[in-house]
Amino acid sequence: MKKNIIRFLFAAVCTAVLWQYTGCRDNADIDDTTSYANPITDYEADPWIYHHTDGYFYYTATYSDFDRIIIRKAETINLLRTASETDLLTANSGILAGTAYEYIWAPELHYINGVWYLFFSASTSSSSDWTIRQFAAECTDSDPVEGTWELKGQIGSSIINTFSVDGTVFKVNNQWYYVWSQYIFDGGTYDEDGDSSNDSVTVNGTVYSDVAGNGTGWACIFIAKTTSDDFTTITDPTIVSVPQYDWECGQDTSICTHTSANVNVNEGPAVLNRNGKVFIVYSASGCDESYCMGMLTADEDDDLCDMSSWSKSGSPVFTTSVANSVYGPGHCSFTTDGDYDVIVYHARRYAGLYDSTSANLDDTTTDGLSDPNRSARAKVFTWNSDGTPNFGTAE
What we know:
By secondary structure, this protein is mainly beta.
């Protein structure tokens, strides 16, 4: 019922607006054949698109009810909107029974060495929703939509022992890596109900103060090496990013018209490897218009499991566009479309969040889960002369 009310309000707000952007690319070499009718899907966050060698674009995302993994396939990105949607896996059912419960988030679909892999986050307890961990499943059939999936297990079960989400994999110099977001607290303690508190954390001798002043946990970006074929075993876990800037903590009023609480957040890492560099593009801040993307950069020959190998952008690399009425772009993935590089991300059509208790747009609420009205979007991006990605303006 709550979801239906919110969707009705969402539709009422947006009825008079046509959300289709077909121009305004970053350079003259990008033509109209790579324009996308944004949003490409509605009511789904954390979008992931894999462009397979069979010519199809495979799409998955966080479903608005957080209780399943869905998948679509289409011959173009624009056709994903009308493609049929299949429930691939369902919480506490089938291969997930007794293992993965509520809050199935951020599924990713990869094709590696002839095998399809799904990486996703979910609650490991039926009685405590916030025991979120990460899982891997695989399918050896040619079609991941119709094929049979096998749950390989929890990723890094002996290492990842607090609230953690948004895992992804990438390969550099013949080594596979796993990157994810995980909550940390000084002293190594964590209350799964989320009521632990601390005003600072110390990582590698550096003290990070609580910019938002909320005294809760810190979601940080971790990296580790994978040492098993099914990606469930990892070693050498290292923190490579801690929220430290105003824009990472919902406190930058140049992005957001208000300040947000409970948002010492770095999450949703996605990886690019180009021009001898490795880029981790991650999301920061709250679920409202303050949500934005930062970027970590390392040389591909450096020790990627060493925090000192990474440099962080001092300002967001992708953020709200008031001019385009695209708010809080975040949790991206990357794909290709012909010769073009494409960033896929979610955003809202309005600033703020709907408050589930009053069903009103409320600039003070921080409960992003009560407002599932995020939509998946895509745009072509280019590369700067210094070899870094240029994502341009959210559209």
